[in-house]
């Protein structure tokens, strides 16, 4: 008989406070990390302490982000922001579509990524040319003041490297990031 | 009605009383608020793990506490109490604490900003568990108290029964909810989410009796180095709820943190309540009989 | 630190548990103060007076660590007679060109160097000024300003012109009484701090300093840190475990973004971007930038390897290794200069990579005005931040100054991948690189910035492939062929890291920057990161659990340079190479093995005995003596006196912030004379000190962060779990100020500066302490700066109030000390908002010149 | 009670004004180290989430039904079939409405059967559910048999059972309400059952007076009189024991409800006693008594809310208990 009251009479949980009253779902409870396909080593994206994070993945989705107990920096602990990493990376504030606003436009329009990349490449080349300076006050500068970039402190070293390499080759010098702010 | 069959020095063994033979040691929290830095990692880690919904964007002005209290959608709540500038007037003269000067923690009446992470107490004698009519609330084999969300019909009886005002009923789904001491994680030998995240180990998780010893050491250590305001709360199995599965080291009176100074589980008075109910029922019957005896109307 | 770096703060709690004393100096009683043994409320903007007072205290009471100071600092060095101190010139140093608002370093040198060329000779003052403005100070991020390797010294420290005596005279007037008058810290508290610090320093005890932007974001920010460096050097705390000065950086890889700098003035590895006046070709560049002594001497090897990595075969000896392909600087091109370039129409395009200047940069209004004048703007972010939507709901739309349809900026918003959706390394605040692995593929159009930059570069390269214009050669010949993989053609981050790490002639990864050659046989994207893939293994991905390692934990991740965890750790041993004390042993000389050893990778030449003294003609690394722990400095010593490298003074002096209620009690010179000021009608400054009109903005205000939010809020305001913890913008005021201005707890207040007015809820709290300065009551207002019009919780941005008066060395804005007015009630809406600001400007008599005087 | 009465304006206002900030001028530093006895004036325990009118209605109707069944059985036993029939019908209707109200108030009404999942003596609501589950069908059968006159023996047995169970139904709700942490309820757990029983009797009597005329109503009148007397006695004993903790019963909405109830009870009783044969007077008196009983339940319900909301009611008695324990060294 599955009826808990019956289990009370026959079992040791006379008052129905525990064993007898437990439902099947409760008995079969397991933490969602137990069924994760893999645990990926990562680092918290927020501040520069660099707390270790374990990212649990199941069916191609991140199901949990916890502190990494192995880390000598953080010993498995996280702050409120680090603990909110799952909501940061899977919350519904995130955008997944390219948005485009035409000059003077009142609202966003959609654009496929490929077209956007091409339009951006053209604009970089155009602005680069417009702002190109072989010289400045008689001295060779070989640079463009046509476009600028801001950002890098939340990015990986590899991303910063490609950005600096590309923009410097394009002659852009107005390249900055949060370290300045 | 909880029989005191096996009251050991460590107090009642709740899991045994709930019918678990050969159960694992009772697990719980010791929250040492003297090292709490009020970062609220516990609040977020708890909500993240248990998918507890956000419950309100309301600036309260209660120092940095905008979560207000434990409830159905806040299972960890960090309290903030500013005690600055309360020193006796003469204290301002010699600068032990001067309103416009520096403040030295060792001085008496030095300004303090108390921070404490509150949680369900998982009481040894749990009122919510006792009064729950459907058996949704149960004692687990770890001695913790958990709401079975698939059973609870939202009768709300546990809400006014809790002497700490922990459990609440959630408007959105009509069910009662509270800290489960991460019962799903416990089953797999994992540490609850809040204890795992806590940067300064203010929240310590472990077997309750081990934690009780650790708490005793910690409070005497604090007394030795002059923090004599430190005291333990709900650590004693002899208190009104048989000791808490989650207990605390506080730096001021419990009521300053919004905690009851001497909570007693209502179930202790239940036997007397049933006796009075029975008497009253009998009285009611007697009254009816008295009202009806010697009624002449039938001779007509 | 408990506020913005709580998990790092566990180590402070560990130290407290072992008996350490925690002192927290902060205008506001924060969560850190709650744990501190002593909280010292200080007037925002007066830290040099406080620290200077401590330096004086250490010198006057002879509490300095004599053997350390004598051997490891330039205290004994005798300065040139030409040098004149702020005590002689009432607040300025010798060499000030008042016309060009710049210092000439010539008079700050060591004695005997007068004739010695430091690479800046043969350049006119105007050009020299422009070189200075190119944030040359920042070049010394890893040390190496030029100075004479073997100067004259007086080991008895008595010579009137030796650095020790100059320093003593410089801070002589920073008495406890003066400190109280300038900072509001009572004398008895100052003495208590001084005693705690000096008692806890020396051979077997160390004091550590921890700071963040509370020090950097000032017009004298760099000099704040310099004062702490002087103090810590005098106390012998540098290079030792539990000592030093820890900077707590705010972003996951802000250290990484200065090492591999998306910054205008630097090439990877703190090599300066070439300047039009001093670096015409590779040889002049190397001559100007290298130092004769120390590891900076190998500048040529580092630069050639970089150029080789970028331009591959095209970079050969006869093409000067494509040095000419590098664009040149002509002055300051910082982000604030760029805003002016955008407003006056020169800068047409703008990329934003995970940064939100519309609310996150100083004078947020000018940021938006700049963006409104662009041709195109590309925003790469995870959420719709204000910088992407300013044209739709920006404050200027609300005040009617701008109409959406008039804003011609074409905006592309490209969703970014999260840290769990891409491979890569962050460099944390301890210079440690940690690899984060991709867990899942990004969804929809979300891409990593590696993907974006690589594919953008490929498209541009393709579009310019056929070009015959010389201008396009650097792009055509750029090595840009990284392997791509996965469904989204994601470039291989490991390959990029290998290029950064550097390869030898046969393409095998190098393991140390000492292997770099200047003949083009080695490539290296960033010389200080050489070793990150030593042996072809991604050292940054090492995850040996901390509990299975020593307390230094060298096998977790990789720290630059050479996995060294504590810089200058040679100083943790005495001149004979023995640890100063067993308790504080870190690195020592192992005579039997003939090499340095210890808990950390020694920051010294492995086999150089402590007894080694270089011959006079030794150059480069050979010139480092056995007692020169500061291997990056050109004289191997800790600089109490900085003969070069800083543009606003060899010694720190207290100057009032750009906007201050006080006149400078110490000198006639009110502000930092060479601070960088960006003059623009929208960037007005308030009168200061005794100037008429300064009473219109009587209150000091400072900005700071809350634990629950992250910088400009892009990664916290959009999250329900964080937004509900701090759901509204508020200001913190003392009960006394609340009573004075009629502010109600939880009511509204409007805060006004010469730039803007914002509204905030009022938090009346005794954690803000009014200060008594020389009989005056100074109130300070606290402003968290996380809010903006978008997100789950919205509010006004504190950066609206900020101005663009910058630190001259690193061009960072001064948002930690400003003056303002505060009044009850919400701010006006619509055009009346700008009227209110104009009213205030008129009442204070503000003109284009206010606050810009020297 | 400690010197300060919990309603002392200064105390709760000071706690609410701001973080420990006394109301007078900001600058004056309060002499003693002032420690508010609450966390920003917020409640220590949680207010009952039960809604009105459902739950007070359920308490009143449960009482009315139970007492009516008891009266009905006695009436029938003494031959007063007319009153018995009316009372049985009233009881069935009342318990039906009461059940509906209880289920409607559930957060998840579809799971109301879970009330019978376990048998827990520690839960008055669980025991009550079993009682009501037994009582409702028997009361219905008793009423059906009385109304249709069919199966009189079964009807009589059902009436007897209904009376026994009814007495429980009328009084278990007292244990339900007092077995909580709400001070105004819990501290009255000795008197509340009698108050509930008396109130139930008064209501049942009143219903009887409404439903039937004399002489059948005489038993109802006597029942009501005795019930009301018991109710008023129990209530005064309760308030006297509670002292300050009983303040919620004397103030605010609860206070008004309780006062009105008392007035109506008095009116009802005088009408019942003096009204004699006058049918209209009896009916009005009956109605007054029924209403009074309902208002009493609503009054007790709202008093519970107030008692839970103000931290002083929870904290002050506990502080005093600790001080006394410390004083006698028994602590």
Description:
The complex is a heterotetramer of chains A (181), B (300), C (854) and D (331). Chain A has 181 residues and is of the alpha+beta class. Chain A has helices spanning 4-10, 24-27, 80-83, 85-90, 113-130, 157-169, and strands at 38-43, 52-58, 61-67, 99-101, 109-110, 132-136, 139-144, 147-150, 175-176. Chain A folds into three domains: 1-30, no CATH class; 32-90, N-terminal domain of TfIIb (Single Sheet); 99-180, no CATH class. Chain A has a three-stranded antiparallel sheet with strand order 1-2-3. A two-stranded antiparallel ribbon of chain A has the order 4-5. In chain A, strand 8 (147-150), helix 6 (157-169) and strand 9 form a beta-alpha-beta unit. Chain A is elongated. Chain B has 300 residues and is an alpha+beta fold. The longest helix of chain B has 23 residues, at 270-292. In chain B, the strands form four sheets. Chain B has a four-stranded mixed sheet with strand order 9-1-11-10. Chain B has a two-stranded antiparallel ribbon with strand order 2-4. In chain B, 63% of the residues are buried. Chain B contains nine helices and eleven strands. In chain C, the strands form eleven sheets. Chain C has a six-stranded mixed sheet with strand order 21-23-22-28-20-26. In chain C, strands 9-10-11 form a three-stranded parallel sheet, with no helix packed on it. A three-stranded antiparallel sheet of chain C has the order 12-13-16, with helices on one face. Among the domains of chain C are: 10-73 and 166-247, Dimethylsulfoxide Reductase, domain 2 (3-Layer(aba) Sandwich), CATH 3.40.228; 676-843, Barwin-like endoglucanases (Beta Barrel), CATH 2.40.40.20. Chain C is globular, with a radius of gyration of 27 Å. Chain C has 854 residues and is an alpha/beta fold. Chain C is 24% helix and 12% strand. In chain C, helix 3 runs antiparallel to helix 8 (176-183), helix 8 packs across helix 9 and helix 15 packs across helix 17. Chain D is an all-alpha fold and 331 residues long. Chain D has two domains: 1-42, no CATH class; 54-310, Formate dehydrogenase/DMSO reductase fold. Chain D is built from twelve helices and no strands. In chain D, helix 4 packs antiparallel against helix 5 (152-178). The longest helix of chain D has 31 residues, at 279-309. Chain D starts with 8 loop residues before the first helix and ends with a helix. At the A-C interface, strand 1, strand 2, strand 3, helix 3 and helix 4 of A face helix 12, helix 15, strand 9, strand 10 and helix 18 of C.
């Amino acid at each position: 008989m599955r009826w808990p009251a019956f289990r009370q009479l026959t079992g040791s949980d006379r008052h129905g406070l525990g064993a007898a009253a437990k439902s099947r779902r409760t008995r079969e409870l397991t933490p969602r990390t137990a069924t994760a396909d893999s645990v990926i080593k990562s680092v918290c994206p927020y501040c520069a302490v660099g707390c270790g994070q374990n990212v649990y993945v199941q069916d191609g989705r991140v199901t949990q982000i916890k502190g990494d107990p192995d880390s000598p920096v953080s010993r498995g602990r996280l702050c409120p922001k680090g603990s909110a990493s799952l909501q940061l990376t899977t919350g519904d504030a995130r955008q997944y579509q390219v948005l485009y606003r035409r000059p003077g436009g009142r609202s966003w329009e959609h654009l496929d990524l490929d077209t956007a990349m091409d339009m951006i490449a053209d604009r970089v080349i155009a602005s680069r040319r417009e702002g190109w300076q072989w010289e400045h006050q008689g001295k060779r500068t070989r640079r463009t003041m046509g476009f600028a970039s801001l950002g890098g402190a939340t990015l990986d070293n590899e991303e910063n490297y490609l950005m600096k390499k590309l923009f410097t080759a394009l002659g852009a010098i107005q390249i900055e990031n949060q370290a300045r702010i | 009605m909880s029989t005191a069959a096996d009251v050991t020095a460590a107090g009642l063994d709740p899991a045994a009383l709930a019918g678990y033979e050969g159960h694992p040691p009772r697990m719980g929290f010791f929250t040492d608020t003297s090292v709490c830095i009020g970062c609220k990692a516990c609040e977020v880690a708890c909500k993240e793990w248990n998918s507890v919904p956000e419950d309100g964007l309301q600036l309260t002005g209660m120092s940095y506490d905008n979560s207000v209290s434990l409830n159905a959608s806040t299972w960890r709540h960090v309290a903030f109490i500013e005690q600055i500038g309360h020193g006796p007037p003469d204290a301002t003269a010699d600068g032990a604490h001067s309103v416009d000067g520096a403040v030295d923690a060792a001085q008496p009446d030095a300004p303090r900003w108390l921070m404490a992470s509150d949680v369900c107490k998982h009481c040894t004698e749990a009122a919510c568990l006792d009064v729950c009519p459907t058996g949704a609330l149960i004692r687990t084999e770890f001695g913790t108290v958990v709401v079975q969300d698939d059973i609870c019909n939202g009768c709300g009886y546990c809400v006014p029964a809790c002497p700490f005002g922990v459990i609440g009923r959630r408007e959105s789904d009509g069910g009662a909810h509270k800290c489960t001491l991460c019962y799903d994680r416990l089953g797999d030998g994992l540490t609850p989410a809040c204890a795992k995240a806590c940067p300064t180990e203010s929240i310590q998780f472990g077997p309750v009796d081990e934690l009780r010893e650790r708490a005793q050491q910690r409070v005497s250590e604090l007394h030795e180095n002059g923090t004599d305001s430190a005291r333990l709360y709900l650590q004693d199995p002899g208190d009104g709820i048989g000791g808490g599965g989650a207990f605390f080291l506080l730096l001021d009176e419990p009521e300053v943190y919004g905690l009851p100074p001497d909570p007693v589980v209502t179930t202790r008075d239940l036997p007397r309540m049933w006796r009075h109910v029975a008497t009253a029922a009998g009285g009611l019957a007697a009254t009816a009989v008295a009202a009806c005896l010697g009624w002449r109307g039938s001779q007509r | 630190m408990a506020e913005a770096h709580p998990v790092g703060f566990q180590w402070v709690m560990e130290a407290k548990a072992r008996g350490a004393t925690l002192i927290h100096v902060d205008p506001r009683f924060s969560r850190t103060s709650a744990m501190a043994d002593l909280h010292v409320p200080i007037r925002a903007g007066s830290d040099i007076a406080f620290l200077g007072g401590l330096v004086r205290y250490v010198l006057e009471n002879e509490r300095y660590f004599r053997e350390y100071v004598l051997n490891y600092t330039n205290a004994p060095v005798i300065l040139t007679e030409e040098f004149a101190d702020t005590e002689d010139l009432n607040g300025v140093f010798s060499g000030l060109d008042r016309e060009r608002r710049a210092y000439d370093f010539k008079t700050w040198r060591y004695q005997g160097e007068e004739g010695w060329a430091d690479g800046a000779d043969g350049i006119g003052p105007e050009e020299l000024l422009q070189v200075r403005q190119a944030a040359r100070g920042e070049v010394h991020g890893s040390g190496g300003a030029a100075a004479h390797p073997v100067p004259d010294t007086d080991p008895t420290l008595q010579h009137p012109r030796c650095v020790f005596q100059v320093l003593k005279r410089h801070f002589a007037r920073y008495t406890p009484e003066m400190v109280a008058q300038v900072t509001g810290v009572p004398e008895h508290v100052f003495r208590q701090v001084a005693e705690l610090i000096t008692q806890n320093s020396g051979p077997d005890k160390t004091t550590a300093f921890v700071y963040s932007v509370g020090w950097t974001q000032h017009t004298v920010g760099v000099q704040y840190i310099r004062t702490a460096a002087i103090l810590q050097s005098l106390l012998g705390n540098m290079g030792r475990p539990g000592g030093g000065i820890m900077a707590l950086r705010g972003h996951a890889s802000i250290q990484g973004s200065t090492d591999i700098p998306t910054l205008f003035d630097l090439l990877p590895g703190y090599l300066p971007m070439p300047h039009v006046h001093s670096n015409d070709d590779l040889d002049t560049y190397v001559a100007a930038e290298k130092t004769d002594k120390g590891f900076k001497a190998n500048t040529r090897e580092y630069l050639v390897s970089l150029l080789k990595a970028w331009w591959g075969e095209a970079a050969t000896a006869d093409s000067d290794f494509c040095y000419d392909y590098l664009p040149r600087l002509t002055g300051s091109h910082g982000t604030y200069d760029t805003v002016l370039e955008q407003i006056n129409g020169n800068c047409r395009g703008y990329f934003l990579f995970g940064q939100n200047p519309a609310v996150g940069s100083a004078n947020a209004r000018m940021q938006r005005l700049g963006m409104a004048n662009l041709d195109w703007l590309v925003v790469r972010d995870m959420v719709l931040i204000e910088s992407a939507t300013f044209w739709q709901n920006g404050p200027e739309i609300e005040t009617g100054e701008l109409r959406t349809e008039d804003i011609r900026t074409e905006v592309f918003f490209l969703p970014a991948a999260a840290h769990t959706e891409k491979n890569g390394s962050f460099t944390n605040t301890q210079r440690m690189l940690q690899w984060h692995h991709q867990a899942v593929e990004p969804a929809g159009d979300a891409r990593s910035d590696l993907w974006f930059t690589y594919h953008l570069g490929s498209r541009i390269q393709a579009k310019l492939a056929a070009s015959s214009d010389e201008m396009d050669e650097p792009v055509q010949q750029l090595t840009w062929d990284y392997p791509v993989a996965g469904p989204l053609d994601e470039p291989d981050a490991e390959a990029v890291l290998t290029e950064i790490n550097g390869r030898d002639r046969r393409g095998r990864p190098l393991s140390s920057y000492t292997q770099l050659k200047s003949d083009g046989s080695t490539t290296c994207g960033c010389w200080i990161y050489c070793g990150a893939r030593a042996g072809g293994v991604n050292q940054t991905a090492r995850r040996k659990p901390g509990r299975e390692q020593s307390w230094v934990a060298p096998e977790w991740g990789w720290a630059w340079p050479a996995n060294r965890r504590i810089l200058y750790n040679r100083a943790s041993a005495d001149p004979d190479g023995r640890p100063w004390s067993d308790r504080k042993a870190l690195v020592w000389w192992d005579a039997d093995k003939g090499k340095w050893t210890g808990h950390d990778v020694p920051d010294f030449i492995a086999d150089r005995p402590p007894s080694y003294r270089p011959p006079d003609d030794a150059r480069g690394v050979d010139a480092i003596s056995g007692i020169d722990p500061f291997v990056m400095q050109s004289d191997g010593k800790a600089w109490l006196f900085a003969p070069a490298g800083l543009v606003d003074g060899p010694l720190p002096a207290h100057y009032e912030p750009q906007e201050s209620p006080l006149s400078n009690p110490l000198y006639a010179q009110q502000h930092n004379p060479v601070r960088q000021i960006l003059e623009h009608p929208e960037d007005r400054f308030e009168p200061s000190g005794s100037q008429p009109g300064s009473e219109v903005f009587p209150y000091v205000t400072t900005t700071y962060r809350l634990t629950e939010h992250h910088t400009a809020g892009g990664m916290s305001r959009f999250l329900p779990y964080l937004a509900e913890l701090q759901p509204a913008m508020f200001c913190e005021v003392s009960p006394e100020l609340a009573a004075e201005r009629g502010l109600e707890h939880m009511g509204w207040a409007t805060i006004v500066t010469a730039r803007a007015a914002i509204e905030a809820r009022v938090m009346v709290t005794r954690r803000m302490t009014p200060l008594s300065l020389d009989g005056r009551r100074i109130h300070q207002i606290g402003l968290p700066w996380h809010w903006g019009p978008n997100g789950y919780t919205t509010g006004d941005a504190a950066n609206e109030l900020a101005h663009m008066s910058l630190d001259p060395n690193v061009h960072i804005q001064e948002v930690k000390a400003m003056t303002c007015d505060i009044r009850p009630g919400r701010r006006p809406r619509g055009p009346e908002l700008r009227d209110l600001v104009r009213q205030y400007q008129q009442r204070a008599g503000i003109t284009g010149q206010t606050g810009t005087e020297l | 009670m400690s010197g300060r009465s919990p309603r002392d304006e200064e105390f709760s206002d000071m706690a609410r004004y701001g973080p420990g900030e006394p109301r007078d001028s900001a600058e004056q530093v309060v002499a003693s180290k002032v420690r508010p006895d609450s966390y920003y004036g917020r409640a220590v325990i949680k207010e009952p989430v039960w809604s009105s009118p459902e739950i007070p209605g359920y308490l009143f109707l449960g009482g009315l039904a139970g007492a009516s069944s008891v009266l009905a059985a006695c009436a029938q036993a003494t031959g007063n079939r007319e009153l018995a029939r009316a009372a049985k019908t009233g009881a069935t209707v009342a318990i039906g409405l009461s059940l509906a109200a209880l289920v409607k108030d559930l957060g998840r009404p579809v799971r109301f059967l879970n009330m019978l999942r376990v048998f827990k003596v520690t839960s008055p609501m669980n025991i009550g559910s079993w009682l009501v589950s037994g009582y409702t069908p028997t009361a219905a059968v008793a009423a059906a048999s009385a109304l249709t006159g069919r199966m009189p023996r079964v009807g009589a047995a059902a009436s007897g059972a209904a009376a026994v169970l009814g007495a429980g139904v009328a009084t278990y709700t007292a244990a339900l309400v007092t077995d909580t942490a709400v001070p105004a309820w819990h501290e009255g757990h000795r008197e509340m059952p009698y108050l509930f029983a008396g109130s139930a009797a008064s209501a049942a009597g009143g219903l009887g007076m409404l439903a039937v005329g004399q002489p059948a109503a005489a038993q109802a009148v006597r029942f009501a009189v005795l019930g009301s007397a018991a109710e008023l006695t129990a209530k005064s004993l309760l308030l006297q024991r509670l002292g300050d903790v009983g303040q919620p019963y004397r103030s605010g909405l609860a206070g008004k409800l309780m006062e009105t109830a008392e007035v109506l009870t008095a009116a009802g009783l005088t009408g019942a006693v003096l009204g004699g044969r006058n049918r209209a007077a009896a009916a009005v008196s009956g109605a007054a008594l029924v209403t009074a009983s309902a208002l009493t339940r609503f009054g007790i319900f709202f008093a519970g809310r107030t008692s839970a909301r103000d931290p002083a009611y929870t904290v002050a008695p506990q502080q005093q208990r600790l001080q006394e324990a410390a004083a006698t060294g028994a602590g």
